[in-house]
Specification:
- This protein folds into two domains: 4-72, no CATH class; 93-304, Uracil-DNA glycosylase-like domain (Uracil-DNA Glycosylase, subunit E), CATH 3.40.470.10.
- 43% of the residues lie in helices and 10% in strands.
- It contains 13 helices and eight strands.
- It has helices at residues 4-19, 29-43, 52-55, 93-105, 108-113, 140-145, 152-163, 200-217, 227-234, 242-245, 263-269, 275-294, 301-304; strands at 24-26, 66-68, 124-125, 131-135, 172-175, 221-225, 249-252, 255-260.
- A hairpin with a 2-residue loop joins β7 (249-252) and β8 (255-260).
- It starts with a helix and ends with a helix.
- It binds uracil (URA).
Length: 308
Amino acid sequence: MPTRDQLLALNDELRRLKAGGQRAVSVSEEGLAQLREAVTASRSGFMPDRPAEIASAATVSGAKPDLQMLAAARPAAPAMPATPEIKLPEGDKPARWNFLRNLVLNDATCQARVYPGKQVVFGVGNLDAAVMFVGEAPGGDEEDQGEPFVGRAGQLLNKMIKAMGLERGQVYIGNILNWRPDMGTRNADGSQTGNRPPTAQEMAYCLPFIRAQIAIIRPRVLVALGKTAVDGLLGPDRFKSMGAARGSWHSYADTPLRASYHPSYLLRQEGLTSAAAKKIKRDAWEDMLAVMERAELPVSEKQRNYFL
Ligand code: URA
């Protein structure tokens, strides 16, 4: 029967093959029997120091010579190390931003938390942006494409940016976290069902990365989208709720900061006709109007009357 280490190595190799596009591997009847035995042993707890992920390490279908790729759950990531200290080099914005981007994309802790085949996600946009949006963490589309806010929430954010009279390429968009928070299990195709907010430790690790992006961009206005961004930039104990955080100006490192609802939350109001849902959408747009004024962007009458 394979040992725990051999199973983990097999797990890694299968995920590597899968990330490279391979969908099936051949396993002999004897090999399959041994794997089944090992998986059964791990499920019933007979394997010493069995990590939780081994319990769901393999899904084997059919005793045929060509078997479906084993769908593997992720081994537990190593403990979160201390918050990294970032020393940005001298130079212009592009040089400093490229340095930081390389640092984050190649950061061993970020890499260890990203599911195989998925990507670490760094901020995008105009380095001279007047407005910088900060979200929570990448979701499925973002970890696939390596860019923040490219899924459904991103489409809504794009729509809001457009309604502000801007293009996506004129603003800067980043996240508090640079990887998609792991729920512990993945589907056979590597996708994850659901999202969870980042833990305090995850946020503490990544905060220097978004802080450094803000220090490079130096936007006129920061927009914290949702409670995680508010907590990350203003401190976890400042506001009890989004209701308490939004509607007035705050300051992050001498930059005016407006808190607004996360686009995913706004998406959940779509199609709802209750007065409460309408108010949430109107409030979000009023946040954007306030941002436009503070960033000294023109605001037309049509924009004032716009409704998300
Ligand atoms: N939600 C976020 O907070 N950030 C993204 O990049 C996508 C969805």
